[in-house]
Structure formats: structure tokens, C-alpha cells
């Protein structure tokens, strides 16, 4: 089946269900509504779910926070705490867990720099455990962090760098942070996805050919992602749909055009747009003007969430003391 | 008449001429083809030209360099020299001319940072002239440079800062560098526009309400601009046109749809797109992924062009010695 | 009288009083000890005080916070509030006061970038007052902010840029932020000086020839400064003194050497060091390794202090909501 | 024997030879004087040489270029070419050699950022060889590059990251770039040291505990270093020596002081200074004010040198085309 590309399980689900009034087969969904945010828990249960969603079996938790685009400090703190809860629940980490945080993406490309910015801000402690030959501590857990860059900067597949470091440092858990592509401008910088399936080829803003998952790295891999760009073809596609909706309401055209559209399937339309756009705008990104500031804010929310989730002695009261 | 917004005179001309096989009334155009670039000299002659083009009377020179997206050093040097020639011709500066270079735009927003990056790289000398109480010099001209920021950063209209500085330092000439919006993804970072009309309200990537022109500042104002973003609505609009072209060729629809499109005028279509896009993507920019690197390259080309144009003692051979 | 250069009134006082057990004539001093900081209020009362201190008549308030080098969030908040109180007391601003914040220094030189970093972080509002044609507001005051750069970057004397902008925008108050030089490594990034005398020639990390004071700008000028570097000659000088102290205690030498040192006056020693150092290390700075991080922290403390002091509707509870 | 710490073999040699008019035993030295630079080739031949120099057996080439502080383009090109020659001679690389370039140091601390800045600028190609499954090429060699950060940023010993990546990617050669500490302000940013001994514990601006050498990594390791800071204690020490020289010439003191100084050995003096300085200025660096600009320039010189040395198809004419 044709799959419009999206990194978000909630969007894969929307795409499937469009026009079909039932849940995706092989997928379980729970939705929790809070005052300022909505949590959607998508479980892909089996091969049928994998096929329908275009994503591997596992859990995908989405926290959607419309005001995260322009948050006040209280909201940022609330989301960090909620994120910490979800990370803990999915990672099942204890104070003995050794975690390697990996910031994926290219720090020179603003909307791709989310991962490296989070890595810059989390509290790293592994070197103290090594120096003092400690196994665990009441306050802090053993955390290391790395931004491996992208292949264009290093000449090395990102996965190879991570695997090399994992083999040398033997963490129990890898948490990978990545900027995602969304189908919908409204999700840019407002949606956080946490998953226990790691990072899989073709996801993220850039191109990663080797997956970063437990199969490859040999330890559990949690991924945390936030959409920061919309694909140009997607944007045009969605706009055309909106225009057609708008035109239909105004009855600006008759039956022939309607039939043409029905005839032209969703896949054909998207392919046509890609084909038309590609030659004159390869590597184009669609992103909010203030993306630099948004990424800075989001990296603080995620880094705080990670600090609370990983270190037993850090809670909301003092989480901001540890942010860099 | 309805005007699709563009900062480039060559695009305003294309928009006017579309479907009409004649030159824009009130406008004079000369085109010069070189191996690696094309120079278009547009002169808006009178009120009729102003109305047709949506731009004030004056000269607009465009250097289009398709390979400027991925230039080698020789091409960059060649374009710097050509740019220097055009600046000299339009500015009529001598070694006695005191020039203030103004870098417009927001240094925190990558595609808007062209002006500030150029200012960072040009050779400034005014302080030596002041210190040694010299009026002129065989090697260097009196040059100062300023990046005033944008209103969201300072709370002050950019024009007011420039005017305050002009009144204190009395330059003979102001050259303003700005990032522009284009209608066409192909022009991003490949087209340089030089004009003697200064910067006028509503142009550039950000919004400037006060024009920076000779009327306001009291001295001649040359503007140099390079498109770095495409407006999202424009991109959708152009893509739809391409799709329709493509569909028509394949005869995928009949006469009714064609009639609908003919009925739906260009203005209506663009307005419809803006209306549909606005609520869900305000402040969206469409830009190449590698815009950071492109802006760096372009700022060197422009800064070199300015250094050669302004200082009598700098020529191609040593221009790279003065770049910062 | 010979004056060892220092930007801090507390250090000028120490230098004067050294060896003399009495207050500096023409100067009034009050000291307030708090748990985490000490406030010293120095008033230079008259010409005699000016001569003895090498600084103009006026008030110099110093907040010394030894832990500001490695602060937790509570301490940063506490110091921001205290700073806000001092600014309010010295500036006598109301909600109608229009303030221009000026960030002095070179953003390319890390220890000189304090002023520009503060400007980047304060809340600017003037453009809203202009747009809505408001004179005042219950929540916000009219604040603009500018980092004019340094002469080597612009070719323009910093004072000229500020004066030009003051004449165009007519603020009631200018607050200038600057990085200072201290005599003492311990004061680096732990001491904040607030003064109503503005910035005077020769102070700060770089060289400013034109003072930024009420006489020149025509409105009151408050300066806020934090030492970020120690002069190399000063450091050598102080180290030699420490060595001599240490040697004397250990009686490593006899009367002749002691006599030589007594003979060699303080001025002669310092001049000798400068003379010896100058040829082989012009423009050398002595600064902590982690100065980048220190400056970031300090700029938040000052920007928060300014936001609380200037805007009637911002208090501690929500100050962090406005920091950028 | 007491060793004042220096990363430069030429300085270790000076320290040894001071007062002794003969070459260091176990060390061979050749000096080559050119118009704009001097090359010193130090070979530590055996255990005796190691002990006397405080450095492992191997070759240490130093290119001293006094004008590199303020270079024109011709000088930069000349030094890049000379550097390329030395790298080739010491690395014995061919077009088949797979090289991993490692940029050591902390990118957040300006004078420690040399390595990461070089890595940012070199041409990386390994991913093309992997994609096209090529073993070699007439124009390009297989080059990858990585900046591993420092332990305070990652929690991981730098050597472990490099070793992990070496094991995954199997280069034939590692070239490590590092910022060094010098004893002498004049050497800051004017001296390039190339060595075949790799990086050894305790060298560089930061602290690296694990050496990066062929023994640890299993492949030859070339190191390239440039001094960017002077140790504060060293600076004071050297200044005191200069002062004493100056005083002696002016006969400002008699025999007793002279005797005291003779009695106080070099080691004692340096230890005394360290002791006195430590409590009030830990982690202090002494560096030129314009260090940001110097590091930028130097990183271009080194990256150009590496590009010429490693890729068969890059020569002086087009080296600037490949710099980023």
C-alpha cells in the first residue's frame, strides 16, 4: 500500500483512517485529554499493524501541546514533568541504569539541530562514576551524551559512530533525540513523540540509512522526536486539499471536476506533486520563521524531562538548576 | 491592479508580461548574456512604469548566476568583480566618497541574516580617517558599517536607527544589504539585485515599515539584495500552475474544469491560497535546507564586491586578504 | 597621583586606603552584609573624592556575590531581585519612563560580550507603544535596546551611534551594560557595579574614547557592569606582591631586598611590569576558562533584573517567562 | 628532574638547554630557515631523550611563522603548502590511505576550539567511497572526520569515543588536531607542531587522561597542534624573569638579592608561583583578545594543509574551493 511519509504514528493513523470510520487493524489506541495537552498512546501490535502503519511493532506516545509554540515557564515545566513520566514508564530505568543520550541531526541546519541542542543541555555524569569507581548513587544516575553529527559532516554513518561508542562504554539504555518531519504545519514544535522502537531508516529531518534500534545496538533504544519541518510536497498537497474543500463548499465547479478528483487517487496526486516540485526545489524545507527560538525552547523542555526521568535526585523544584 | 508580491524587478516584469508579448509600458530593459551569468538592467522610467511594476522609478540591475548555489572560487571571484563594477557604475563613488554600509535583517533568523553577515565581513575604515583627521587616501576610502537589527529585537524602527547614525556621521552614500523574497525557488541564492531606489516598505524577508531611501535619509541609497526565501503561498500557487500544465498535457480532464480555471482569475487563486494557508501556517518560510552555508558564501561574494567597489587600492588579486 | 586602572569604585577605594587606616576623603561608604552577598555603596561627594578615586562624582553600588560563579537558580533569582531594587532606587523610573538599554562591547570577543548578551535577553516593548500610540501601560513600560558594536566593527565611535539613536527616539533614561576589567581574579563574574555616572572614557574591557554620560546624551545614564577580565600586568603585579608576602614570612631574604622593595614605589613597580609585558603580549586577556558559560549566566541575571526594575507588571514569579 | 609543562618539543629543548651550551642528549635537531618561517625538526631518539624532554620517542616538527598572527592570503597559502609537505612526509600516506581526522578540544571554550573548527572545514569523502563501494580514486582519498568533544560535555573519555569509531570504520591513519599550551606568549597562534607520536596524556589545553597514540588505537597517529593559550603561572614566572633582568641592568639592588635569587632555584620559583596563584585563579587562561579571529584563520590554514596532503587531486590552485 502507498504510504505518505510521516515520522509520527498519530499521523500514520490519521492517514489510514481517513475516510474509514474504524481503528487501524493491528493497532491499539488510547487517548488522554488534559487541560493543556493531549496524550495519544498508539501500540502497533503485530505484522498487520506494521503494514498498515508503515512502522515497526512497539509503543508510540504522543504529547500534543498546542501552546508549546509560545509557552510560559509553567507550561514548559508541566510538559517536562509529563515527558519525564512517559520516559520512565517506557524505559523502566532505575538509578543503576547507565544511559547514553544521542543527539541526532546536523547542528548547522537550524531545524535539524534539536538533538545536538538537547545533548548540550543534559546533565552528564558518567565520568564521575568512572573516576570514583562507583556503581550507583542516591542522587545521580550514570549518564553520557553524544552528538555524532551527520554523514555529510563526518563521512561516517551515524549508526556506526553510536555503535562504536556503545561497544566501548556499555550503556544499558540508549535514548535518541531527533527532529522529525510532520505532514501538518500545526504539529511543528507542538508535538513530542516517545517510542520504544528507536530510530528507523528514513525517519527524521535528514536521511539516516542505518536504523538506531535495539536490534542493531544490542540495548533498548528509546527515541524522542519533535516535528520541526513540513515536507514541501506535503504542504502543497494539503493546501490543494484545503482549496478543493473550499471550492466544493462554494460550488465553484460541476460534476466533471469532481469526477476527475475522485478518479485521481490520493497516491497519484502526491506523486504528481513530488514530480512537479522535485526538479525546481530539491532539499527544500518549510519551517516557521522563528524556528531558532522554538528549537531553543524545546531543547530545554526535553533536557529537563530527561534530567528528571534519569536522575533519582532531580525533581521539578530544582530541575532548572541543572539545565545548561 | 493586483500585484503578487515580489522584491525583484525581473519578477515584477515577468508577472506583467505573462501572456502579453510586449515590454512593460514605462519600463526599459536591456539583457546581457555572459557565460556563467545574465545581467538584466531594468529601468522604471515614469509613473506608468511605477504602477505597472509596483516599484519606484529607478534602475534595477539583476545578476543571475545559476551556479552560485554551488560555486567554485573562480566563479565567486568573477561575480564579486562584476558586482563591484555595477556598484561603481550606479553609485558613482570616488575615493573621497564616505560610505555607510547597512546590513538589514535579523541575525537570529538564518535566511534573514545576509545583511548582518556582509557587514561582519566588509572592511571598515572610517575610524582611521577620524583618528588621523584625513579626508582621503590613495588606498582606502572612508567606510563605516552597521547592522541595526530588526524591530522585534530593538523596539526601534530600523530606519530611525539608520537616520540617527547618518545624521551623526554624515556619509555621502548609504548601501543597504537585504535578504529578499522571490516567487521562484530557482532564484534563491542565485540572483543579486542592485538598485538605486533604496529599500522600500514591505520588501525584504522581514517587514520594514519605513523606507530606507534618499528621500528619508537625505543621501543616495543603493540597495543590494539576494532572494533567500520563497513565500509559502507563492510556492503553492506556482506548484498548482505546474500541476495544471502537467494535467492539461495528459488531457486528464475535460472542458468544464478548464473553464473553471479560466473563470478563476490569477488574483482569486492567489488570494484563495493565502486565505487557506494563513490560519495554519503564519510566518512560514520555504528555504533550501543548506541555507546556512549558502548565506555564508553569498556574504563573502557581496563583501568582496563592496571592498573592490569602494576602496581604490583593493583589486581582485588581493581582495581575499581583506575579507573577514 | 598615580592611579592603577580599575573600573570598580570598590577597588579604587581599596587602592587608596591600602596602608592608610581611614576612609578616602571626599567619599562616603556604607556596607550592608547579607547571607550570600555584600552591598557596598560608595558616594563620591566632591572634587576631592573625584581626584582620590579617579572617577566622577556620583553613586557606585557594588553587589559582591562570591557564589555567582557557580550559582543555583535561587541565588540567581535573589540577585536579579536585589539588582532590580538597586536599579529602581538609582534610576527613579516610573511606568511612564522610556528606557533605552545599551549593550556595550564586542560580541565576537567572549569576555566583552556581556552587554550584547543582555540586550539579546531583555524584553523590548517600544514598538508596541509606537504602534498603538500609547503613552503608558499598567503592565509594561516603554523599553528599547541596542548593541552598537565597537569601533573596530563599525568604524563609528559607539557614543555617536547611541547619541544618534537617542536623538531620534527620545528616551528618558539610558541604561548601559558593559564588561569591566578588575584588579582581582576573585571579582571576575561575582561583582555587579551599578552607577549613576554612566560610562566614562577608558573604562570597560575595550576602549571607548567618548563617555556615555548624561552630559553627552542629555538624559540620565545608569551603568551596570561586571568584571570579566583581569589586566595581565595587574595579575603579574598582584602575584609578585603575594610572592613577596610569602617570602617575607619565610624570611628567605634580608634587609637589603626589603629596602629595595620599599624604595621601589607601587607606581614604579606597576610601570615596570607594563613596560616589560607590553612588547611581547599586547592585547592579552586573563580570564576564566569557562568564561562563555559565566557570561551566559550573568546576562540572564542582569536581564531579569532589568525586566523586573523597568516593567511594573513583571515580578519574580514570572520573570523567567520573559527572558529570551 | 623537574619539568615545566609545555606541549612543544622546541620549548622542552629550550628549557633543557637553558644555561647549558649543548644539544639535549638523546635528541637530534635540524633547523631550516625560510624567509617567513623557521622549521625545527626535533627527533627524540631513545629513553635518554625521552627523559630529558619529557616526551615520547619520535619526530616533532615545528613550523614557526611570526606573521601568522596577522597573515595575508599568500602567507596562509604558503604555510598550508608547507604543512601539507610535512604531513605527507611524516604520514607516508598514499591515495589508498583511509584517514580519520580527529578534532580534539571543547568547542565552547574559544581557545580550545581549534580542533573542532578544523574538522568543520576539512573535506570528508568516506561516505562516497562506501556508497559507491570504491577502494580508491584518482582525485580524492577516503577521509572521515570527527570532533568527539571533551569529557565534561559527553561524560566519556575522548579516547574511548575515538577507539570505538576506529574499530567500526578501520582507518589506516588517524590525524589528531589539538590546541596547545605554550610557555611563551609569542608562540600563540604562530607555531605549528606536527608529530608522529600522537597525543599523550596531559597535553593540550584541556586535560586528556588517555593518550591517543598508535599503541592505543592500533594505527599510526599524527598530531598537529598550535599553541593558543599560555599558562598563567608560566606567564607570571616569565615576567618576573624579565623584571629581574631589567633590574639587574639598572643595578637597582645589591649582592644579597642576587644571592637570594641564585639560591631560589627555577623549580622552586615556579612552584611558589603556582602555589600562590592556584587558590585565587584556578582554570585561568591567558590568551590574546582577538583569539576568536586567530582560531578561525588557523583552522583554515590547517584544513587547507590537510586537504592538500590527503587528496591526490587537490593542489594549491584549487585548495580554497574545498574549504568550508
TrEMBL record, chains A, B, C, D:
Keyword vocabulary terms for this entry: Hydrolase, Protease, Zymogen
Stored Gene3D superfamilies: HybD-like (3.40.50.1450)
InterPro entries: Pept_HybD-like_dom_sf (IPR023430), Peptidase_A25 (IPR005080)
Pfam families xrefs: Peptidase_A25
Acetylation recorded as keyword: no
One annotated GO biological process: proteolysis
Molecular function per GO: peptidase activity
Keyword Cell membrane included in the entry's annotation: no
HAMAP family reported for this sequence: Germination_prot
The protein, known as: Spore protease
